[in-house]
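During the second half of the funding period, the structural biology subgroup turned its attention to how the target accommodates small molecules. The most pressing case was zinc ion, which had performed well in the primary screen but for which no bound structure existed. We therefore specified the complex as follows and requested a full 3D prediction, including the ligand pose.
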Amino acid sequence: MTDTVIEIRRDLHRHPELGFQEFRTSAKVAEFLRQSGLEPTEGIAVTGVTAEVRGDQPGPTLMLRADMDALPIEEETGLEFASQEPGKMHACGHDLHTAILLGTARILQAMKPSLKGTVKLIFQPAEEGPGGADPMIKEGVLSNVDYALGLHLWSDLPCGHVAISPGPVMAAADTFRVKIHGKGGHAAYPHESADPIVAAAALITAMQTLVSRNTSPFDSAVVSVTQIQGGSADNIIPERVEFSGTIRTFQPSTRAALVKRLHEMVPSLCQSYGTEGEFQFSEGYPALINDPVPCRWVAQAAEQMKLPLSAQATMGGEDMAYYLQKVPGAFFFLGAAPDQAERVFPHHHPKFELDERAVPLAMELFLRCVESCLK
Ligand SMILES: [Zn+2]
Ligand SMILES: [Zn+2]
């Protein structure tokens, strides 16, 4: 299936679509599934597609999930199959995830007589935001599912390296906004104003203690301020400043503690500078928690294939987390870094590339996991 999968991948790569706009992609997915003898259901959470490979013998249902969406980035790889859509690019590898799961589906369909159970294939929209997993679950895709598996190809792991660990492996990815209201005025008469810029500077500095002083050294968390707006001229103290950023945590208790601390810190510190501060929190994807049983299937498959195996956790977010809140499952990484170091770029970079030699390895990993689950 490798050549077919690479051909599909390159077609999807030429025609990237953003979250909940994956109409061409999902039509291609459904068409390929039908050609493989499956009966796909389309239009779940707008563009999501599912299908089931029902084994001839009874057994559990294992869900395999791929994401389909691209990113609003102008591609600069210069690849022969580069994006033909201005300002859109598959810069996270979801084109490969989709193509790999299609190839896996066709092989599984041919294995039906020996399958003890069902493999449910899920092609979901909008992983990059606002999230397709949660609406697909609300439309019932998990109703008969016992276990779930998802894969992410990874550009900073050497091609063929597998990374999997039980427990929390990707962070809860929340966002926040702070609004500081001061009293504007002439920059030459600061004593007649309440300067929100100085309050913002003090507050951002104080926020650096949330991780270093309020979080256990044995736990992980990130608080990053990523945008700041305020002021309009060199000689004016502005009336207001706003800034925003992200909070990443693994443990729900750490997440709650940081949010509580920010709710206290923002108004009180701003008040001490004569300004008024408001903290707004908005919940993102939850932390992704792997179950040890499916992790063992992945590790065993990697060992059988003699692939290097390591543990990996990242502060990135992933909406696969929603499925794993409901059913035991695992999300694992397969290295797909290009051979030449100068062609290795991080995910979401305009020059992001993955090595297609990961394709047959990814399909074999999925198939071996199916074997372990539906044995
Ligand atoms: Zn991404
Ligand atoms: Zn991704």
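Two results from this model are relevant to the next phase. The mean pLDDT is 97. Residues 336 and 354 are 5 Å apart (CA to CA).
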